[in-house]
Each structure stands twice: as C-alpha cells, then as structure tokens.
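Why does residue order matter? Because the sequence determines the fold. Keep that principle in mind as you read this record.
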Amino acid sequence: MLCRLIYFILALTACVSLADDKTIEEAQDHQLPVGIWVGLSNDINKEITALRISKQGSHGFIHASISSALSNGVYYKFTDKDIKCDKYFCHITMAGEQNNSRSLSTFLDPIWDELHVTELDPTGYSDAPKVQSYKLHRVEDLAVLDTYVNNVRKRQPLTGQSGFAGDWIGYTKNENLSVTNNYLVNLYIREDGHAELESYLLRSITPIKHSEFNTGHLQHDDNFIDIEVEALAGLCLGAAKLTLSKVTNNSMSGYYRCLHHRHKNMLNEGFIEFDRK
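Structure:
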C-alpha cells in the first residue's frame, strides 16, 4: 500500500504546470484552476487530502490517513465532464476504486490562494450523508508528502514503546495566523526521555524541520508532560512550551505555545495530536 501511495503522489504531480493560466471549462462563469492542492481535511479521522487539476483533463483526489503514516488511502479519479461550475462555485462528482462516490463544492479564495471545500459523502452514518468543510492550499508538488512517507518508512522503530516512550505520528493545526498552517509531525521519545521532533509544513517546499530536547525530568506524571524548549522544529521561530496529555496508551494530544524570546509571553499557539506508530 505504501508503494502504491508513492506511485499516486508521482501521478498527482505529473502533467501539472502551476505557471499555466489555462483553466477547466473556460466557458463557465467560474473556473477551477490547474494545480495541486493539499491540506488537513478531517480532524476526527486525521486525514490528509490532495486534489490535482490538470490541463489534460484527467484529475485526481485522495484521502490518506495520518495515523497510518499515509499508507492507507482512498483514491478517486475524475475528468472535465465531472466538473460543473456556476458563478461562484465548481461542483465535482467522482467515484472511487470501490465504486464509493464523493461530491465536492469548491470556492477559490484568490487572496490567500486557497480552495474552500465542502465535501459530501453519501455513505455517512445512520443513512445520513456525511458533510465536512476544509481548506486546501496550492502547492508546487507533493514532494513534502513523498519525503514524509520515505522518512517514516526508513526509520528504525524505538525499542521502548511504553508510557511516553516510543514512535508517535500526528499533525498540528495553527489557525491563529492570517494563513492557516498545517503540519505533519513525528515525535520520537526514548526511554531515557530524549526526544526528537520533525515537522513537515504541507504548503511548503522547504526541507523538514528538526529539533531535539529532553522530556524525562519534566514529566509531571505518567500521563502529562509540560516542556519548555529553545526550538520546536520550526513550529515557532524561537522558544516554545509544549504540553501533552495521554488520551489512551496509544494516543496523546495537547498544544504548543510560541514564546517571546525575552518576556516569555505567548505569541502564538497551535493544537497538536499524536498516535503511536
């Protein structure tokens, strides 16, 4: 499945030119621009979504689970015939590999270069359709996801997988800024408390960010950590405070607060959530 995801990532990036101004269905009032769009689509199920609109008329869409390190994905293909645009929105209907259907309504925010998406899943719960809304950001390619998958795959798991020790994969979402920043994050904590944090900014083409710190002497109990560190893998420009609580033995959540380098007052914060790999 992992190799399949990498293949799909490569397929998404093929034949896409962000510099090309050509758009789909030029006769329509509203047009869906050519490009690749990616974002965090589902906080509950922890999914990454990527949408590709190509000038060749063959398009792709994917939901991939963060808790599976993106190895578990649902894929959809559609063409120009499946896109209908009106004055403000473009509507997309598509079928997946198991004949499961999806429909999207998209609105382009030209100021922030974001797609506002409302997704309808007719196979929701209790015979009622499932509806969710999220934002996708334009990216040049999906190299950051490719790098993430390869790094998770090649890293040797830690021997200790109890308490806070172990391999954790998750995400963080920061909406306090004028632009929403979504990250994939990996946290590796050894039994002696030494920790490594990696972050992958979804909308960025820059390399991953990495920082190391120690958690052992800052654990209040077996279910709670409160850490102040000099760097937090690019999530903050300087010092930060990271607070994590165990939800179950295999999941934890919390928040980080970016601190002023001199006064230590909070500048910014974001929610963060992990699952044990």
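The radius of gyration is 20 Å.
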